[in-house]
Write a structure and sequence with these properties.
This protein has 64 residues and is mainly alpha-helical. 42% of the residues lie in helices and 6% in strands. It has one helix spanning 2-28, and strands at residues 42-43, 53-54. A two-stranded antiparallel sheet has the order 1-2. The mean pLDDT is 82.
């Protein structure tokens, strides 16, 4: 019985540690500015292609 309880507690502890690490990574990410400054895609901010817009978002009109 004791081994079973220890195994359950160890798995719970591992799951909580992984969840906390995922939460830390989620909070540390940097937001991408999509639709910023009137663009409909992602604008490159650094590098040789600075200022170009990638991946325009297009929504096809629905004809009813």
């Amino acid at each position: 019985m004791r081994e079973r309880t220890n195994d359950i507690v160890a798995r719970y502890s591992t799951a909580q540690t992984q969840a906390n690490q995922a939460k830390i990574m989620w909070r540390a990410r940097k937001e991408v500015e999509i639709n910023g400054n009137g663009t409909s895609g992602y604008k490159i901010k650094h590098g040789s292609h600075k200022g170009t817009v990638l991946g325009h978002i297009r929504i096809e009109p629905k004809n009813i």
